[in-house]
Amino acid sequence: MDWGGIVQSRTDKCNTNLEEAKEQIKTLECKLNDAHHEISRLNSEFAQSPAHKVLDCMCDAKIKLLEKEKEDLQECLDDDQSIRGR
User: How far apart are CA 70 and CA 76, in angstroms?
Assistant: First the structure.
């Protein structure tokens, strides 16, 4: 039995698998980098769009509505506590 040949064959196969894995990693890293660039581009585009401004206004209006609701609920709670405290 040629152990040297078997060992060399397995070593060659491992090296081939390692090179294939390195190439796959490199490809995936490039795709990930491209995806990050695309996300940045889309975020920038969205930030400059009229839709972004509308969403900002809607968010501000919702926050104001929730703050008013909180104040109203606090008043009701305060009134309830003052009635019970009498």
Answer: 10
> Residue 2: phi, psi to the nearest 5?
-95, 90
Cβ(52)–Cβ(46) below 8 Å: yes
What is the rounded distance in angstroms from the CA atom of residue 15 to the CA atom of residue 68?
Answer: 67
- Side-chain-facing half-sphere of 66: CA atoms under 13 Å: 6
Full-model pTM = 0.51
The two structure tokens encoding residue 39? 């996300």
pLDDT in tens, 4-61: 666 678 888 888 899 999 999 999 999 999 999 999 999 999 888 988 889 889 999 9
Euclidean distance between CA atoms 80 and 86, whole angstroms: 10
3-state SS class at 86: coil
With CA atoms as reference, report the closest residue to 5 among 13, 21, 18: 13
